[in-house]
Amino acid sequence: MEKGRILLALTGIHPRRWQELLSAEREVVLEPEGASDPSITYAVVWKQRPNLLSSLPNLRAIFSIGAGVDHIFADPTLPDVPIVKIVADNLTQHMTEYVVWRVLDHHRQGMLYRAQQPKKIWHEPPQRLAGDISVGIMGLGNLGRAAASALLSLGFAVNGWSRSDRPMEGVSTYSGEAGLIPFLNATDILVVLLPLTRQTQGIINHGVLKELRKRNGLGGSVLINAGRGRLQKDADILRALEDGTLKEASLDVFEVEPLPKTSPLWSHPKVFVTPHAAATSDPVHLVPIMLRQMAAFERGETLDNLVDRDAGY
Ligand code: NDP
Ligand code: OXD
């Protein structure tokens, strides 16, 4: 197979560095040029314009620059070619750092100390060991499993929930609809690392949060969402914080991004906000993986990390 040309179609992300690095090995056409171009065989995308990909008559594969692919499925005329999602040590490491950072901050009462400091309050709350706290990871995939390993090494009890059975040493695993309530009932700190699909949209709602374990050394349940914003209902999180269902939350993702300036989440004393920054896609680390995959595909090898279209991730 000939060396394929790439269409680079990124929305909300500056394409320059991606273009430079991809161009080291292949010809790159930058959207809005390239629509309908028969010489293009690969598309590298983030939130591509709807109907763009179906205009490419010889498209062979689509590469997401993120681990999530919901942005690709937003296109109503997606052509039937393989979709590759990103799996990279660098991205996984960033996400693991984010999860460990947020879990430890809640566990070690970071919010309380930050509230006490401006008031010069010298008060030490009771301290619990990590082993007394159970962290439940929703989405035990590439990112969830890495975060689980790091949390286990710190001594936390770890639960995991996935669509299919995913045994993992040291982790209490649950799966499917039947496993959801038992998983939540055994979880103090809920970490959400699910993809956004038809099945998972809105899954983090008041009813689900109510099922989290209440009697724990933390003084209440905690939510950490770094998956996707539309997994959660922002209003339900606020309600859960107000009525005591939740003690605190760390949110990296929101129903609407950027989080509107009018959102009460910005100034809520029990919410820690980051701007969808848990694990940023770095072209220096990700482009070589894409180029390797394209070369292997042209040698007749199968692509890795393919998206299951029916499952939506
Ligand atoms: P994977 O595809 O490797 O893992 C997804 C996990 O979710 C799997 O365990 C899967 O189950 C589980 N899952 C999917 N659907 C369901 C369901 N209906 N019920 C129960 N479990 C389900 O994805 P990654 O770990 O690589 O990434 C996860 C998500 O993290 C991405 O989709 C993206 O949205 C988000 N992300 C956010 C970033 C940020 O900066 N905030 C950065 C990178 C990613 P099974 O194992 O059975 O397939
Ligand atoms: C991703 C993201 O999906 O950055 O990789 O959100």
From TrEMBL:
GO terms for molecular function: NAD binding; oxidoreductase activity, acting on the CH-OH group of donors, NAD or NADP as acceptor. Keywords: NAD, Oxidoreductase. InterPro entries: D-isomer_DH_CS1 (IPR029752), D-isomer_DH_NAD-bd (IPR006140), NAD(P)-bd_dom_sf (IPR036291). CDD domains: GDH_like_2. It holds the Pfam family 2-Hacid_dh_C. Residues 102-278 form the D-isomer specific 2-hydroxyacid dehydrogenase NAD-binding domain. It comes from the Bacteria. PANTHER family: 2-HACID_DH_C DOMAIN-CONTAINING PROTEIN, D-ISOMER SPECIFIC 2-HYDROXYACID DEHYDROGENASE NAD-BINDING DOMAIN-CONTAINING PROTEIN. This is Putative 2-hydroxyacid dehydrogenase. It comes from Mesorhizobium metallidurans STM 2683.
